[in-house]
C-alpha cells in the first residue's frame, strides 16, 4: 500500500496541468525509488507520456515541487535500465520541424511561437503593460536564496532549523505540523504557527532554556532559521488569461501569481487587481505604479487560500503618432490627457504639440475633437478615445539655398531684407571661374508651383541690381567650365601611355608626349602629326575640309620645342619608324639536324635558307611529307571576320552545329600550307621556295608507311602502304565503296597538305596516285530527289514531242 501511495505521488508530480493536485514537499521528500517495482516504473513512464513530460524536463519540475534530486537521478537510471527512455523522446511533426528556425543569439523559435496572432492577442499586445507577461526573458519567480523576510509568518508545512551551539551543541530540522506545532526532542511540542521568525526564535529559546542551562547564563546560543518553505494554494479569478488554482511557494507575491497565470486578459484591468483574504479585500495592486516608478509597495506576499481577482477595466484610451511609446493605456477617474502622455514617455522630437486630434465615440456616432496645447493638462478622458499626435511639417520656414561656383554652397537662414548679394557674401564669395553673364534663381510661387528667373550676376555683385530673396529660393551660379564640353587632347601611336589627357592652356606637342610617358622604342621622331577640328567657320558651298593636319619633327629628348601649341580636342599621332623591326621567329621541327626556333635574319629569307641553318635533313627524313603551318590571321577578330564572310557567301548563317563544325574545319585548313621540299632542295630560290614569315612552323616527318581511309567505305581504317597498289586496291582493302559513296568526289590529302581529287576521263574516273602517308576521303552522295507528278508529266510530254518531231522529219524525207 505504501508503494502504491508513492507511485500516486510521483504521477501527480509529472502532471503539467495547472489544476492538478500536486504533492506537498513533505510527501515528495518521502519518495524512495528503490522501493518501486518495474511495473510501477512503467506506469510512471506511461503517465509522463500522457502529460507530455520529457526525460530532460524531470529535473526542473522536481526542483520546483520539492522532490529530492537524488531520487530523480535514481528514477532516471531505472527508466534507462528498462529501455523506457526512448519512449519519452517527443518528436515534433515534420511540418513543425521545418518551421522551426534559429535566431542569431542561438535560441530556437518553434513554429508554435510564430503562429499568426488572433485579433484578441493582437489587441492585448498593444495594451500598455502587457509586454511584462509576453516577454520570455522576464520572470517574477521569487528568489529562495535570500534571507527570510522579517514579516514572514510561519505556518504548517514550513521547515524550521534549530541550531544550538556553545557549551551544548545540537541541531534539529523540524516540520510545522498542521496543528501549528514543532516537536523538539526531549522537550515536546512548541506552538509557532502565525509567528514571525524573530518571535519564533524567542519562544523556542525560552523552551530550550529549560533543558540547556547555558542559554540563560550566556554560554549557549540558539539560532533559528527557515529551511524548506511550504507551498500555498492561490486562486486567480476574473479577467486573467488562464484563471484557476495555482500552487506557489509561500514567498510568492501578487506579481508572481499574475505571471504564472499569463497576466490580465483582453478585458482585464492592470490597475485594479485585488487580493481577497478570508472573504474581504485587503489590498489593491496597481501594475502601472511599478511600470512608471518601480513601486511595488502593494505587491504583498500571498498566503494560503488567497484569492487574486483581476477586475474588468473601466476606461481605456489609445495614443498613436509621434509619441515615444504608442499604446493603449488604462486610465483611472480624474486622470487627464497630460497623465497619459507622461505614461507614454512624452512627445517625440518631431511631434506637433500645438494641436492633438482625438476620435471619440458618442452614443450614436463618432466625432473628432481638437485639443490645443493649453487644454491638454485638464482634458477629461472618455473610454474609447483615440488620440493622434501629428509630426511637424517637413519644410523650412526660413531656408534659402545657393549652389554652383561659390566657395561654400549650401543652405542658409533667410534674414530680413536679404538679397542675393548678401547670400553670396554668406557663402564666402564667388569662385574665380564663376560665369558673370548669367545666373538663375529658382523659387516657389504662392501656390507652390515652381518658377525661375535669370539675372546678370555681374550687376548683382556690383550692386547695380538688387534682388530680394524669398523662403525656399535656390540660387544657382554656373562656372565657365561647366558650360562647355570638357577639354581633352589625345595622343596615339608609339608612346608608352596613349589615350586622352586633360587640356591645359599653352600645351605643346612635346608636353603631351611627356604626359603620355615618352616615346616607345619603335617611335619615329619625324612626321609627328596633329589633327585639329575646324571650329567657328562659316559655311561655304564646295568646301569639304573637315580637319586641319600639321606635320613636323621632334627631338628624341623632347628638349627643343617645336613651337606648336595644342588646342582642345587635338589628336597627336606618333608614327612607327619605317626601319624598325622586332625579332621575328620561325620554327623547324622533325627530321633536321638542328631543330628548334630560329630568328629571321632578313625580310627575304626563304625556306632553303632556314633548312641550311638547321644543318639539312637527316637520312630518315621524308621530304615529300613536309608541310608549313602559317598564321593566316594575326588576331581572333580577323578570323571572326573571315568566318562571317564565309557564312554570308555560302548563305549558311544559323544552319546548325554540323555545318558550323565544317566551317571551323575549313578555317583550320587555311593554316596548313603545302610545300614541295624536294623542289626547294633541288632549286633554292625557285617559285617553290617561299619567303618566311613570323610564326611559321615547318614540320618534316619520318618516312611514312601507312595509308588512312575515311568516309563511305565499309571499314575505314589505316592500312600498310604498298607501292604496287593503286587507289581502287586500297578501297577494296577497306571493304569497297558503300551504296552512299560518291566515287567521283573522292580525293586524297598528301602528308604535305596537298590535295588531289578524282578526275573524269571520258566516262571513267581517274583516281589520284597514292603516296606513303596519304589520307583517302570518300564523301557521301547528297539525298536523291525524286520526280514530282508535274515534273514527270512535263518530262513525258517533252520526250513525246521530240519523238513526234523526229517521226515527222523522217516521213517528209521519204
UniProtKB/TrEMBL annotation:
Pfam families: Poly_export, SLBB, SLBB_2
The Polysaccharide export protein N-terminal domain, residue ranges: 147-212
Domain SLBB: 233-310
Top-level taxonomic group: Bacteria
Keyword line: Cell outer membrane, Ion transport, Lipoprotein, Membrane, Palmitate, Polysaccharide transport, Porin, Signal, Sugar transport, Transmembrane, Transmembrane beta strand, Transmembrane helix, Transport
Signal sequence coordinates: 1-20
Domain Soluble ligand binding: 317-361, 399-444, 489-535, 586-630
Transmembrane domains' residue ranges: 792-810
Subcellular localization, as worded in the UniProt entry: Cell outer membrane
Major place of residence: membrane
Membrane topology: Multi-pass membrane protein
Family: Belongs to the BexD/CtrA/VexA family.
PANTHER family per record: POLYSACCHARIDE EXPORT PROTEIN GFCE-RELATED (PTHR33619)
Protein name per UniProt: SLBB domain-containing protein
Organism: Chitinophaga pollutisoli
Amino acid at each position: 500500500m505504501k508503494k502504491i501511495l508513492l507511485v500516486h505521488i510521483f504521477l501527480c508530480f509529472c502532471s503539467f496541468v495547472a489544476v492538478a493536485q500536486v504533492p506537498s514537499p513533505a510527501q515528495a521528500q518521502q519518495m524512495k525509488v528503490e522501493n518501486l517495482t518495474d511495473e510501477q516504473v512503467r506506469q510512471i513512464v506511461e503517465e509522463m507520456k500522457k502529460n507530455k513530460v520529457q526525460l530532460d524536463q524531470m529535473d526542473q519540475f522536481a526542483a520546483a515541487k520539492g522532490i529530492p534530486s537524488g531520487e530523480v537521478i535514481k528514477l532516471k537510471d531505472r527508466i534507462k535500465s528498462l529501455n523506457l527512455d526512448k519512449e519519452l523522446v517527443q518528436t515534433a511533426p515534420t511540418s513543425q520541424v521545418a518551421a522551426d528556425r534559429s535566431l542569431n543569439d542561438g535560441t530556437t523559435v518553434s513554429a508554435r511561437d510564430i503562429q499568426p496572432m488572433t485579433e484578441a492577442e493582437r489587441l492585448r499586445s498593444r495594451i500598455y503593460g502587457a509586454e511584462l507577461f509576453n516577454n520570455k526573458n522576464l520572470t517574477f519567480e521569487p528568489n529562495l536564496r535570500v534571507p527570510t523576510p522579517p514579516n514572514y509568518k510561519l505556518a504548517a508545512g514550513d521547515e524550521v532549523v534549530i541550531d544550538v551551539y556553545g557549551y551544548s551543541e545540537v541541531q534539529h530540522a523540524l516540520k510545522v505540523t498542521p496543528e501549528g506545532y514543532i516537536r523538539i526532542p526531549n522537550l515536546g511540542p512548541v506552538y509557532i504557527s502565525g509567528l514571525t521568525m524573530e518571535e519564533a526564535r524567542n519562544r523556542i529559546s525560552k523552551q530550550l532554556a529549560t533543558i540547556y542551562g547555558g542559554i540563560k547564563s550566556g554560554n549557549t546560543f540558539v539560532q533559528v532559521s527557515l529551511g524548506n518553505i511550504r507551498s500555498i494554494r492561490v486562486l486567480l479569478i476574473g479577467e486573467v488569461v488562464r484563471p484557476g488554482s495555482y500552487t506557489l511557494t509561500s514567498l510568492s507575491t501578487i506579481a508572481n501569481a499574475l505571471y504564472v497565470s499569463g497576466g490580465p486578459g483582453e478585458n482585464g484591468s492592470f490597475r485594479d487587481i485585488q487580493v481577497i483574504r478570508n472573504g474581504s479585500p485587503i489590498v489593491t495592486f496597481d501594475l502601472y505604479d511599478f511600470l512608471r516608478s518601480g513601486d511595488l509597495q502593494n505587491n504583498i506576499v500571498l498566503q494560503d487560500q488567497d484569492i487574486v481577482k483581476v477586475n474588468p477595466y473601466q476606461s481605456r484610451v489609445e495614443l498613436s503618432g509621434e509619441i515615444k511609446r504608442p499604446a493603449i493605456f488604462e486610465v483611472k477617474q480624474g486622470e487627464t490627457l497630460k497623465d497619459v502622455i507622461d505614461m507614454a514617455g512624452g512627445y517625440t522630437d518631431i511631434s506637433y504639440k500645438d494641436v492633438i486630434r482625438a476620435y471619440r465615440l458618442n452614443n450614436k456616432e463618432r466625432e473628432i475633437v481638437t485639443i490645443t496645447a493649453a487644454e491638454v493638462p485638464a482634458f477629461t478622458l472618455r473610454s474609447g478615445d483615440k488620440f493622434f499626435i501629428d509630426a511637424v511639417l517637413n519644410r523650412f520656414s526660413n531656408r534659402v539655398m545657393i549652389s554652383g561656383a561659390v566657395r561654400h554652397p549650401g543652405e542658409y537662414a533667410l534674414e530680413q531684407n536679404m538679397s542675393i548679394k548678401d547670400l553670396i557674401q554668406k557663402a564666402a564669395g564667388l569662385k574665380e571661374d564663376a560665369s558673370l553673364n548669367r545666373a538663375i534663381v529658382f523659387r516657389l510661387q504662392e501656390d507652390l508651383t515652381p518658377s525661375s528667373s535669370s539675372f546678370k550676376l555681374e550687376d548683382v555683385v556690383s550692386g547695380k541690381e538688387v534682388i530680394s530673396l524669398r523662403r525656399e529660393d535656390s540660387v544657382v551660379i554656373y562656372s565657365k567650365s561647366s558650360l562647355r564640353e570638357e577639354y581633352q587632347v589625345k595622343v596615339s601611336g608609339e608612346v608608352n601611355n596613349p589615350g586622352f589627357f586633360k587640356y591645359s592652356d599653352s600645351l605643346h606637342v612635346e608636353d603631351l608626349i611627356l604626359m603620355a610617358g615618352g616615346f616607345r622604342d619603335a617611335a619615329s621622331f619625324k612626321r609627328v602629326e596633329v589633327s585639329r577640328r575646324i571650329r567657328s567657320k562659316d559655311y561655304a558651298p564646295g568646301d569639304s575640309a573637315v580637319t586641319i593636319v600639321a606635320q613636323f619633327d621632334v627631338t628624341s629628348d623632347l628638349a627643343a620645342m617645336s613651337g606648336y601649341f595644342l588646342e582642345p580636342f587635338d589628336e597627336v599621332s606618333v608614327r612607327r619608324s619605317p626601319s624598325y623591326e622586332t625579332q621575328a621567329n620561325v620554327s623547324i621541327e622533325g627530321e633536321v639536324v638542328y631543330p628548334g626556333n630560329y630568328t629571321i635574319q632578313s625580310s627575304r629569307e626563304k625556306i632553303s635558307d632556314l633548312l641550311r641553318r638547321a644543318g639539312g635533313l637527316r637520312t630518315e627524313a621524308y621530304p615529300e611529307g613536309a608541310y608549313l603551318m602559317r598564321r593566316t590571321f594575326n588576331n581572333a577578330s580577323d578570323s571572326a571576320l573571315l568566318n562571317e564572310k564565309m557564312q554570308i557567301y555560302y548563305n549558311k548563317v544559323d544552319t546548325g552545329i554540323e555545318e558550323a563544325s565544317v566551317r571551323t574545319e575549313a578555317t583550320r585548313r587555311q593554316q596548313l600550307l603545302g610545300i614541295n621540299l624536294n623542289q626547294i632542295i633541288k632549286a633554292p630560290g625557285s617559285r617553290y621556295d617561299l619567303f618566311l614569315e613570323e610564326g611559321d612552323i615547318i614540320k618534316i616527318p619520318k618516312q611514312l608507311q601507312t595509308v588512312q581511309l575515311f568516309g563511305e567505305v565499309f571499314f575505314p581504317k589505316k592500312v600498310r602502304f604498298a607501292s604496287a597498289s593503286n587507289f581502287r586496291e586500297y578501297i577494296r582493302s577497306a571493304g569497297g565503296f558503300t551504296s552512299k559513296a560518291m566515287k567521283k568526289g573522292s580525293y586524297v590529302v598528301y602528308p604535305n597538305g596537298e590535295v588531289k581529287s578524282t578526275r573524269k576521263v571520258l566516262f571513267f574516273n581517274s583516281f589520284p596516285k597514292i603516296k606513303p602517308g596519304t589520307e583517302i576521303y570518300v564523301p557521301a552522295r547528297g539525298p536523291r530527289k525524286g520526280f514530282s507528278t508535274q515534273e514527270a508529266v512535263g518530262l513525258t510530254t517533252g520526250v513525246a514531242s521530240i519523238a513526234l518531231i523526229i517521226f515527222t522529219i523522217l516521213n517528209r524525207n521519204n
